[in-house]
Amino acid sequence: xxxxxxxxxxxxxxxxxxxxxxxxxxxxxxxxxxxxxxxxxxxxxxxxxxxxxxxxxxxxxxxxxxxxxxxxxxxxxxxxxxxxxxxxxxxxxxxxxxxxxxxxxxxxxxxxxxxxxxxxxxxxxxxxxxxxxxxxxxxxxxxxxxxxxxxxxxxxxxxxxxxxxxxxxxxxxxxxxxxxxxxxxxxxxxxxxxxxxxxxxxxxxxxxxxxxxxxxxxxxxxxxxxxxxxxxxxxxxxxxxxxxxxxxxxxxxxxxxxxxxxxxxxxxxxxxxxxxxxxxxxxxxxxxxxxxxxxxxxxxxxxxxxxxxxxxxxxxxxxxxxxxxxxxxxxxxxxxxxxxxxxxxxxxxxxxxxxxxxxxxxxxxxxxxxxxxxxxxxxxxxxxxxxxxxxxxxxxxxxxxxxxxxxxxxxxxxxxxxxxxxxxxxxxxxxxxxxxxxx
Length: 439
Description:
Elements: E1 9-11, H1 21-25, E2 31-34, E3 37-40, H2 50-54, E4 60-62, E5 75-80, H3 94-103, E6 108-109, H4 112-131, E7 138-139, H5 144-153, H6 167-183, E8 190-196, H7 199-206, E9 218-221, H8 222-234, H9 247-250, H10 257-260, E10 267-271, H11 273-284, E11 293-297, H12 313-323, H13 340-343, H14 362-378, H15 392-400, H16 410-417, H17 433-438
Parallel strand pairs: 5-6, 5-8, 7-11, 8-9, 10-11
Antiparallel strand pairs: 1-4, 2-3
């Protein structure tokens, strides 16, 4: 299944003002600014949502499904992410939130935290076996943005990624199985809708890594669902007892929660895309071979920091800490042995996706690499972004690939115009007049 078939992150050109904030923030250099507007290179985008987070003009957004999609099904099931519980103030029982979902159009709920506990249990049992088959630590597969980042930037680490489906996919499959037994309906009559905190999970819900099909029928923004829930919560006097997960599952909302569920200490966790990249570089350089497990989250603070959430990530984290206070450690039962392969494991191994390939012909590609190096060495190396590319190296690539002109470099423009028309040079790029005279 192709990763770039669909992207949740989209650009609204009319709103874009051509600033380079998103371009500089993108971890895969997937954005260029040309003609006063940002453009997204589809095959490089990992839907991490950093451009949405940073854009001052709100020109980026995540595409999710609307609530009208529920009408396609006779039985509707909500899959709330654990981070969704942290969006509400004044709630002391998660059952209120789960009951509220049934009040806004769903017939049932299935907590993603239930599936998270299943993954934690299985990971705990099998981690030693996995460590024996690889060099370096096992890397969590829970964050789809991180998995796709590894797929395109860290080919040597593909084999280190835990080959288990994300909890959202496990939850969707189990939810449909339980609903068919409960209602007698056919699978196609049952709709499963994931309430998502981020665009990466939207893309994963439609095109999962490692699997050929998805059991998720739609993705709903946490913000949209929150707005619908506000009035519903006011009308709930006594909630239904719907919760079937404990502390281990709820903790997955926060950075370090998945690793803590393994119940051992030899792990590290990192959140925020820049910190994730630093950790992956150290794993790639074999500096963390003494660590057993690495949990990485692209969003700051974990899923509570997703761009589709309402509450500040730190506030949501504190609320979840309060909500889990009186919960048992875990409530989910392990998956039966015969179901493990069908529900838990990836169908396909994670493979490197060569998105930075210069040419199919190796000789031509090598020649282009030499040209890139020559152009890069002639550039100032400021990585200022004024040319519309995030770095001087990226700009050199664009020039060689025919996507930019060498004269687009504003520093080179300064050098050409410093004598003939110095007054037109923007202030940040003007040279000191006294220094120019010395030169």
